[in-house]
Amino acid sequence: MKTVPGRIAGPATFLDERLGAGGFVRRNIRKIFPDHWSFLLGEIALYSFVILLLTGTFLTFWFKPSMGEILYDGTYAPLKGVTMSEAYASTLKLSFEVRGGLLIRQIHHWAALVFIGGMMAHALRVFFTGAYRKPRELNWLIGVVILSIALFEGLTGYSLPDDLLSGAGLRVTQGVVIGLPVVGTYLNFFLFGGEYPGEDVISRFYSIHILLLPGLILALVTAHLILMWVQKHTQFPGKGRTNRNVVGAPFYPAFMAKSGAFFLFTFAVIAGLGTFAQINPVWLYGPYSPADVSAGSQPDFYLAFLEGALRIMPAWEINLFGTAEAGTIPLSVVIPALVPLGLVIVGMALYPFVERWITGDHREHHLADRPRNNPHRTSIGMAVIAFYGVLWLFGGNDIISANFRVDLYTTTWAGRILVFVAPALAYAITYRVCLGLQRSDAAVLAHGVESGVIKRLPNGGYVEVHSRPAEDIEAHLRGREPAPVLSYDETVPPKGLRGPLGRLRLRMSRAYGGEKIPPVNGHPHDEDGQAALPQGQGALPEGQGALPEGQSRALTR
After folding, report:
1. If 0-12 CB within 10 Å is exposed, 13-18 middle and 19+ buried, where does residue 42 land?
2. Can you give the pLDDT at residue 419?
3. Number of separate helices (H) and strands (E) present in the chain
4. Which of 223, 326, 369, 505 stands 20 to 30 A from 197 (CA)?
5. Over the chain, what is the mean pLDDT?
6. Where is this region: Disordered (predicted)?
């Protein structure tokens, strides 16, 4: 097609003459995006958020955010004549009387889970590859804030149906809020409009859930995407990839078509879950009553770690000035409510700046690291995952006790021990695994890859001929760049490295950065020292040797 069709040219000219958008479109429509599956994790979260907005808008047409009591007279026979809130009654109406209402409800709930799960996976990808480094620190902070807001958005939405399960979670939330020193009682009255359960919590959560938090998330997501567009994507090292270019496909038509298809795939998966995987059947739980609680009640996965922290925390408290009359701080509530989430969120926010302080690295980074090539960072990430996993697991300690017939006292103490032991084990194991993978990469560079060709040596022995790895694989392996290490040439250290803090910084830099497994510059060889490259394939440039002393070639007879 050599000319633009009139149906496209006319509207395009109209908009360009009035908005001046032609130059912007021409500059950006050919923007290059790297082609790697891990970059799609963020898109899963983005598309799930779009689905949340669409389905949430549908649900607002029928949901009534009121705690006013009525007698149920709907189509669900087991609850006829039962006193319940208008919020719960409208949820039942959505589920059984509105055409497609139950499907949309379940799609909305599954989309919320996929949204937060996608953000977590995306954050792990960014962390493990070092994509948060300069110039992307601000975008990393925006992502951390979005994740934090999404947790509270999920909590407010989870509470809206006013069923017995969500009410139990709301009761836990109220206990945590009122246990906060100084501000707890004020926050409690602000949220509930009086003594628990109050009369306003559903309507207030509804306003927060559909207006305040989605607006903040939408604004932050927009800023996140704009910064990503301006700063360009990171990419993994490889053939032809540098800090000054991006290798991939253009935004139009390749990336646009791929993204459109991926949105449809994401929607299809969530719609399939909403159709075939029942979630949150509120009619089975009944309306909320402060005097009742659901047996084995569990929150959604993204809040289960806070539930686990509450369950394994010892019953500690502090009486101010030695008397309860002066005031009591319930550590059994304050610590689980603030410490786990604070450690993870604050640690994520500060990590780029702490790492830069330790390494002294102020360069721009547009090439992503392979996780194995920064073993300490990867080990820290796995330790956090283990910490989260233990708390998540023991958020269901009653379920574990009931199904495995282990007393609750034992499972609680197991959680208290594992919450410290599991992260340490995860760190140590991950560090050793990363070093082993680096040695494996070094062996590929030194010996090549197995060719399947067996060669007989003059002395009667047999060896397998190793071939040089493909150019793109070799460039990928050689593209690793260790974290810098603080150093100085003079006998007297610079001012910033003097004193106890400076010496600590220098020791941390030497431990965190540097080359853990020396790189290999060489090419595949047989045991007899002859090059094992296939016929017609040249040797590597002169001066590139074999493995460092002490490393075997791992060839067997």
Report:
1. buried
2. 96
3. 19, 8
4. 326
5. 87
6. 513-557
Residue 522 burial (10 A CB sphere; 0-12, 13-18, 19+): middle
Alpha-carbon Rg for the chain in angstroms: 29
Specify the amino acid at residue 142: I
Q: For the segment 476-502, what is each residue's pLDDT rounded down to a tens digit?
A: 888 888 888 987 766 777 777 888 888
What does the pLDDT read at residue 289?
86
User: pLDDT over 90 for what percent of the chain?
Assistant: 56
Q: What is the DSSP letter of 529?
A: S
Distance CA 502, CA 488 (A): 13
> From CA 130, how far away is CA 151, in angstroms rounded?
24
Identify the pLDDT of residue 498. Answer: 80
Of the candidates 365, 340, 358, the one whose C-alpha atom is nearest the C-alpha of residue 480 is: 365
What's the distance, CA 213 to chain centroid? 19
C-alpha to C-alpha distance for 189 and 460, rounded to whole angstroms: 87
Using the predicted structure, report yes or no on whether residue 149 has a pLDDT greater than 90: yes
d(CA 232, CA 238): 17
Per-residue pLDDT at 549: 36
- C-alpha to C-alpha distance for 334 and 82, rounded to whole angstroms: 37
The DSSP secondary-structure symbol of 414 reads: H
What is the distance in angstroms between the CA of the first residue and the CA of the last residue of the chain? 62
pLDDT in the model for residue 486: 87
Coil/strand/helix, residue 245: coil
The answer to whether 165 touches 313, Cβ cutoff 8 Å, is no
- Give the C-alpha separation, 513 to 357, whole Å: 12
Residue tagged 């298809």 (tokens): 261
Residue 322 has pLDDT above 80, yes or no: no
In angstroms, rounded to a whole number, what is the distance separating the alpha carbons of residues 284 and 280? 9
Query: In the 3-class helix/strand/coil scheme, how is 445-499 assigned residue by residue?
Result: HHHCEEEEEEEECCCCCEEEEEECCCHHHHHHHHCCCCCCCCCCCCCCCCHHHCH
What mean pLDDT do residues 116-128 have? 96
